[in-house]
Amino acid sequence: MGEPPPKSELWPADNSAVTAHITLLQAIIARLATASASSKTWCLTLVGALLSFAAGMKSPQLASFAIMPILIFAFVDANYLAQERAYRALFGAVVAKIRDGSYSRADSFEARAPLERGAVLKALGSWSIWPVYLSLLLAYVVALCSGWITAPVPK
After folding, report:
1. How far apart are the C-alpha atoms of 135 and 55, rounded to whole Å?
2. What average pLDDT does range 101-112 have in this prediction?
3. Exposure string (b/e) for 12-27, b if CB count within 10 Å is 16 or more?
4. CA-CA distance, 148 to 48, in Å (whole number)?
5. What is the C-alpha separation between 37 and 26, in angstroms, rounded?
6. Is residue 61 packed enough to be buried (19+ CB in 10 Å), middle (13-18) or exposed (0-12)?
7. Of 53, 77, 94, 148, which sees the most CB atoms within 10 A?
8. Is residue 26 a contact partner of residue 95, using CB atoms and an 8 Å limit?
9. Beta-carbon neighbour count of residue 124 at 10 Å?
């Protein structure tokens, strides 16, 4: 057997396994970002429908059900963001290994990005989370306080 072919100056970045690994991590990050956007869309739709239905039925008690999806979707969205941040950190670490040439065969199978302690709570403070869900909570409060959703007057 002869000598192995010489490595290019782009090695290991020009290796198809390395490229596939980076593509995998990018796809995971993109799916998490899409899921986060979907959380916001579904929450807005559901809360809007609940508040509209409560106004039509003149039922403040029914309107109070709008709080649960806001809290649930805020937590789910924060979890997606925390996971996305973890995968971005993993992506950065893999790219750093590729750049300095220390990327090895063992690295090519790494696709876990464990969450750090408190990552979800930290994500709740993100500009992409709290303004959306706080706005929905404020819309609920405004709807109740403005009389838009009122109890029916007994006859």
Report:
1. 19
2. 83
3. beebeebeebeeebee
4. 13
5. 17
6. exposed
7. 77
8. no
9. 16
Is residue 108 within 8 Å of residue 21, measured between CB atoms?
yes
pTM of the complete model: 0.82
pLDDT over 70 at 94, yes or no: yes
CA distance 80 to 77: 5
pLDDT at 143: 78
Q: Comparing C-alpha atoms, which of 40, 44, 25 is closest to residue 83? A: 25
Res 78: pLDDT: 96
Give the model's pLDDT for residue 149: 66
39 burial (CB, 10 Å; 0-12 / 13-18 / 19+) is buried
